[in-house]
Amino acid sequence: MMEDLFPASRVDAELAPGLILARGFFDAAAQKQLVADVKALAAQSPWYRPRMPRSGKPFSVQMTNCGALGWVSDVDGYRYQSRHPVTGEPWAPIPELAMDAWSALSSYPHPPQACLVNLYDAGARMGLHQDSDEGDFSAPVVSISLGDTAIFRFGGRSRADPTRSVKLHSGDVVVLGGPSRLAFHGVDRILAGSSSLLPGGGRINLTLRGVTRPMP
Ligand SMILES: O=C(O)CCC(=O)C(=O)O
Ligand SMILES: [Mn+2]
């Protein structure tokens, strides 16, 4: 399949109105620190494999969360909750470096309430979807890539809108805000062996979000 890929450059690019790609936002040292942070948070809030609503089909990605609220999916549907679905414990705090990316890139005056952490192995993918389970869309979504390169697909606010793809490398950060807050997006595939950041390969994605309307 032909992929309409943006060239990799280290400058911030507006891929669509409100859809910003901050290439190489995290340098190698920061990426290593974030991996250590994710390892630590996963010791408190372990990886688990969510299931699709209704069908109960397992996701190809493993997930955990950090922050006040975590996004979960099971046969009953998608929702945010303050406790890990398997352990019943509160989620671990959001790593400081992830908070830094939010502060630098979100242009939003409130901290994130949720951070979903996705773990992709070489065969994992994420279908085209909108991030629309939040009760309020005024905060952008800030999404951090670590490890193997992902082919990230994005389109418009309607599933039928045309899509384009871009490679997300380790250290890149994507912001879905403004007119692109509800843009469809997904991960078509992971380029196995493209990064040596994670022992054993694979990719980690941290997705920071606001969930409820902030108090005035
Ligand atoms: O892994 C990514 O880059 C995107 C993840 C995503 O869209 C999500 O978890 O909602
Ligand atoms: Mn998403």
Short description:
This protein has helices spanning 28-44, 96-105, and strands at 13-16, 19-22, 62-66, 70-74, 77-81, 114-120, 126-129, 141-147, 150-154, 164-168, 173-176, 185-190, 203-209.
Report what the structure shows.
Strand 1 (13-16) and strand 2 (19-22) form a beta hairpin. Strands 1-2-11-8-13-6-3 form a 7-stranded antiparallel beta sheet, covered by helices on one side. It has one domain: Alpha-ketoglutarate-dependent dioxygenase AlkB-like (Jelly Rolls), CATH 2.60.120.590. The mean pLDDT is 94. Helices cover 12% and strands 31% of the residues. It has helices at residues 28-44, 96-105; strands spanning 13-16, 19-22, 62-66, 70-74, 77-81, 114-120, 126-129, 141-147, 150-154, 164-168, 173-176, 185-190, 203-209. The protein is mainly β and 216 residues long. It starts with 12 loop residues before the first strand and ends in a 7-residue tail after the last strand. The structure holds 2-oxoglutaric acid and manganese (II) ion. Manganese (II) ion (MN) is lined by residues 129, 131, 185. Residues 129, 131, 185 line the site of manganese (II) ion.
